[in-house]
Specification:
single chain, alpha/beta, ABC transporter transmembrane region fold, Rossmann fold, 2 domains, six-stranded mixed beta sheet, 62% helix, 10% strand, binds adenosine-5'-triphosphate, binds magnesium ion
């Protein structure tokens, strides 16, 4: 069994900080290397475009310098026209570079995010049921969407901006120095004065951003839970409470966002003051140089141009650092998710089930406690064998462990001790898919998908023919209610089947299980929502199907199990009695008590013979 602590990162209360240090972030990007590897040509094109666009921006300053000096000052119009032409060519190249940069870089980002999302989803599908009991599924959805989007933004935007800025920064600096080393030195002197406040404020903005994101996640979680239970909310007229709770969540999110905006605004203001003061000072120093003929007006213009470019790229690094850390955190969480291995499949797949399934079942000395409450035993040395074709019923009080038996047969969990055999093989030794292919199950809460009735039945065996689907539908008497539905079998059932009645849902769930044509059929309260008449109709339909396969039926309504070959009475995880209805009635036990309660006033009383 898996240890809860493994999922810590998905359990909201224990969630680690959303962002991690930059150094850590860089380490996490090993993941990205794997996902970028197949796209070498696109990476090359993206890099090429980046270099092209950045060099054109840098060339622009030089063009400016010559245009001003040669064209405006010396007024040689031929040369200045040539320069203009050159500039325009540069602009076209810049446009081409910009297109490539935006297109290929975004393309890479989307591609990586898509591949990653597919992989993570395929992976989480393999994780066992107990994993999903311990995490918040909402968190997992956010992993799949938000975290992959963060990586998409990182690859598709941030990395490109970073590379572009590094190019502009180094190129711009080189140009500045080549124009005037002295002015460059002055500029370098003011760099710390500008950078330090940006870094400090940037950190503050990031903390506020993280808080703001967490508050938004709270809102999402609340909406999800509330709207999924809308019937309960409305039936209990809980709306005013939900409204005010939601108001709190929203207002908290707003306050967090407002604080972040304030910090950002402050940062923008300070950056403006610092950068423009610095530029003004440099400009002032520069005009002295021009006046003293150490440099031309064109030189000064180009110098200022480069200084602005350099300042701009340096300034955006603090924001990039934030993106990097957030994406690093996302990459880390996705890696953790990908690193989780389904603990149930640890056994070796050395053997396959016999190709012909006879539907033999046996559970030997099985003791089991759910992973989430590991000190409370649910099944106690449970031993039972079921012959092929047998129709066995399990009855017993609520919480006795009946559904748990089904979960163990489907190998949703492994028992702590004891063994389970299907067709003579220990189920731990066979591939879990092979095991489940032999089982058709109708769970206690019929689970329908938001599609048509037809598709919901087809779910049992996607390669079944239309005729087979109809045959399964007839067994459970769907024809009784199909005509009243707007599109018959092609009617949409709504989310989880909300547009159908409880009994209709159950019949579809049974049809799905029998379409699978399993050798073992597990019915957990599969007909409890049907009226007695419909139940009998469905049961007579199932009768010939049940004759050729092993069927386990859980029921509270004893009328459902009167005709079972054997009835197992389960109480507190242990078998209290086994026998036919007649045998159990004759014993003075739990079954007789239950039967008396249920049949006392009915005609069935006469069947008891007392
Ligand atoms: N996923 C789970 N995690 C932890 N405990 C569980 C889980 N599912 C069931 N239990 C506990 O195991 C015990 C047996 O549950 P089970 O669902 O097997 O009962 P049942 O006999 O099917 O009852 P009912 O007739 O009400 O469906 C109960 O005490 C229940 O609280
Ligand atoms: Mg149950």
């Amino acid at each position: 069994m898996r240890d809860t602590s493994e999922f810590d990162f998905l359990i909201q209360e224990k969630r680690p900080a959303a962002s991690i240090s930059s150094l850590q972030a860089i380490r996490e990007f090993k993941l990205l290397r794997r996902y970028l590897a197949p796209y070498r040509p696109q990476i090359f094109l993206a890099l090429f475009s980046l270099v092209l666009a950045s060099s054109m921006v840098l060339m622009f300053g030089t063009g400016l310098r010559y245009l001003i000096d040669q064209g405006f000052i010396h007024q040689s119009s031929n040369q200045s026209l040539l320069m203009l032409g050159g500039l325009l060519v540069g602009v076209v190249l810049l446009a081409i570079g910009s297109f490539g940069r935006v297109y290929y870089v975004s393309w890479l980002g989307e591609r990586v995010a898509t591949d990653l999302r597919k992989d993570v989803f395929a992976h989480v599908l393999t994780l066992e049921v107990s994993f999903y009991e311990q995490i918040r599924v909402g968190e997992l959805i956010s992993r799949l969407t938000t975290d992959t989007s963060l990586i998409q933004i990182l690859v598709g935007t941030s990395v490109a901006i970073a590379i572009r800025n590094i190019l502009l920064l180094t190129g711009g600096l080189a140009m500045m120095i080549s124009i005037s080393a002295k002015l460059s030195l002055y500029c370098l002197a003011v760099v710390p004065i500008v950078i330090i406040p940006i870094i400090l404020l940037g950190r503050k903005v990031r903390t506020h951003s993280k808080v703001s994101q967490d508050r938004l996640a709270d809102i999402g979680g609340y909406i999800d839970e509330c709207l999924n239970q809308i019937r309960t909310v409305q039936a209990f007229t809980h709306e005013p409470i939900d409204r005010s709770m939601f108001k709190n969540y929203s207002e908290n999110a707003f306050l967090a966002a407002a604080r972040r905006s304030k910090a950002r605004g402050l940062m923008a203001a300070i950056v403006m003051i610092l950068v423009f003061s610095a530029i003004s000072i440099v400009l002032w120093l520069g005009t002295e140089e021009v006046a003293d003929h150490y440099m031309s007006v064109g030189d000064l213009s180009a110098f200022i141009f480069y200084a602005v470019v350099v300042a701009g790229s340096a300034g955006s690094f603090s924001e990039l650092l934030g993106d990097l850390q957030r994406a690093g955190g996302a990459a880390e969480r996705l890696m953790e998710l990908l690193a989780l291995h389904p603990s149930l499949q640890s056994s070796t797949y050395s053997r396959a089930l016999p190709s012909h399934s006879r539907g033999i079942l046996a559970m030997h000395n099985v003791s089991f406690a759910y992973p989430s409450y590991s000190d409370r035993s649910v099944l106690n040395k449970f031993t039972l064998s079921v012959a092929p074709g047998e129709n066995l019923a399990i009855v017993g009080p609520s919480g006795a462990g009946k559904s748990t038996v089904f979960s163990l047969l489907l190998r949703f969990y492994d028992p702590q001790s004891g063994s389970i055999y299907v067709d003579g093989m220990d189920i731990k030794d066979v591939p879990v898919q092979e095991l489940r292919e032999r089982i058709g199950v109708v769970s206690q809460e019929p689970a329908l998908f938001s599609t048509t009735i037809y598709e919901n039945i087809l779910y049992g065996r996607p390669d079944a023919t239309e005729e087979e689907v109809w045959r399964a539908a007839e067994v459970v008497r769907l024809q009784d209610f199909l005509p009243i539905l707007p599109h018959g079998i092609h009617t949409l059932v709504g989310t989880r089947g909300v547009r159908l009645s409880g009994g209709q849902k159950q019949r579809i769930a049974i049809a799905r299980a029998i379409l699978r044509d399993p050798s073992i059929l597990l019915l957990d309260e599969a007909t409890n929502a049907l009226d007695a008449e419909s139940e009998q109709a469905v049961q007579s339909g199932l009768k010939h199907l049940m004759a050729t396969r092993t069927t386990l039926v859980i029921a509270h309504r004893l009328a459902t199990v009167l005709n079972a070959d054997r009835i197992v009475v389960l109480d507190q995880g242990a078998i209290k009695a086994v026998g036919t209805h007649a045998e159990l009635i004759s014993q003075d036990g739990l079954y007789r008590r239950l039967a008396l309660l249920q049949f006392a006033d009915s005609l069935a009383l006469s069947e008891f013979g007392n």
